[in-house]
Amino acid sequence: MPRLRVGVVGTGTMGAQVLWQLSKRGVDATGFETHAPGHPRGAAGGETRLFRTIEIEDLRYAPIVTRAHEIWAELHEATGRELRVLDGSLVLGSPADPQMRTALESARRSGRPYEVYDEAELRARHPQHAPDPGDIAIWEPIGGTIKPELTVAATAGLAERNGATIHRHSPVREIRETSRGVTVATDSGESEFDRVVVAAGGWTNQLLPRFADLLTVRRLISAWFFAKEAGHLDTIPPFIRTVPNYCYGLPVPDRTAMKIGLGYDHHMAADRPDEVERVARPAELAPFRRIVERYLPGLDPDPMRTDTYIETYTPDHREWVGAHPDMPNVIVLAGFSGHGFKMCPAIGEAGAQLAIDGAPALDVGFLRNPGSG
Ligand SMILES: Cc1cc2nc3c(=O)[nH]c(=O)nc-3n(C[C@H](O)[C@H](O)[C@H](O)COP(=O)(O)OP(=O)(O)OC[C@H]3O[C@@H](n4cnc5c(N)ncnc54)[C@H](O)[C@@H]3O)c2cc1C
């Protein structure tokens, strides 16, 4: 029987995982990438991503993150690389906030160790934070920091070692479903596949205009702030603060500075990511200053570095994981809405299973797909 031929368009966060999963299953897998795996121009730049299993939005993600945690361990083993540093993470906020209530419920149901600190204990353990009166924090020992670029590059490398091919610097111009399968067109010609997985991040709408009504593309700013005093950040874990003052922070590896990110509303639309201005404007840094001065007063509120990345959102932040509505042999993974990295190994597995037999082992039915609209 001939081997199943699957093309993967985009070998970024999700596409590299799909390609690896396909290659492990003996599929004839071919990736196409505008740049090269591990590049910083899409959603996977900025050296760090927060890993947490505590959900703040929707408890139905819990099994996906649990499965991802298992595959992350397999990835560490297979690559021989430390792709995550798991020395704990915090979720902070008011116990009255809906996201914090979801977080408490998520921690309680998980069966994994966690601790809840009241405001006094939070101040005592992590004096870098200046919480609001009555704030609490949930400490999760298996939370931590992901290395995003290394994860993408190392996973793509594993796929190639298993026999997958990656066409680097080969942007895909068009995808067509025909009676023979799916055609992928690049500047060097056309290739035929049985199935194609599109994991093109912020470029999905340009390649598949059918998704333009669903996906909104944003240019996200990350900003890095030095500590005012030496040693100030030595013990601070990565954290996320729930709405209404949503923000997250990750210390840099030498702990001289902290990277801070804000939520969706603070970010510029980027319908055509290759044309959007990539340098942060001074006015865009004002909300960062407010957050730093209010909640992390030991940081210098003038950033020492800013960078921008491209992320794709759906209106309710549930991603599309399923077939294209008009092309059943084209699987689309898109709209990871600011929370996709921690679960990318599980999404990659589901994407590969969808391409092979249409049946992911995990329940991804609550995400968007042709059935859910
Ligand atoms: C600043 C920032 C901070 C974040 N923080 C966190 C966090 O702390 N924790 C967390 O879990 N998640 C976080 N996220 C979310 C997470 O990083 C994203 O959800 C995830 O990286 C999205 O992956 P993707 O595969 O959809 O996109 P990408 O990783 O951008 O991959 C898309 C790839 O497709 C390629 N491509 C596009 N078009 C074509 C084409 N026509 N032909 C060939 N190749 C093409 C691109 O070059 C790119 O490599 C954050 C996101 C951002 C931007």
TrEMBL record:
State the protein's name. Answer: Sarcosine oxidase
Q: Which Gene3D superfamilies match?
A: D-Amino Acid Oxidase, subunit A, domain 2 (3.30.9.10), FAD/NAD(P)-binding domain (3.50.50.60)
Output the Gene Ontology terms for molecular function. Answer: flavin adenine dinucleotide binding; sarcosine oxidase activity
Entry annotated with the keyword Cell membrane: no
Give the organism, scientific name. Murinocardiopsis flavida
Cofactor or coenzyme needed: FAD
- Which keywords does this Swiss-Prot/TrEMBL entry list? FAD, Flavoprotein, Oxidoreductase
Q: Name one Pfam family in it.
A: DAO
Could you confirm whether the keyword Flavoprotein appears in this record? yes
Boundaries of every FAD dependent oxidoreductase domain copy: 6-354
- UniProt xrefs under InterPro entries: FAD-dep_OxRdtase (IPR006076), FAD/NAD-bd_sf (IPR036188), MTOX (IPR045170)
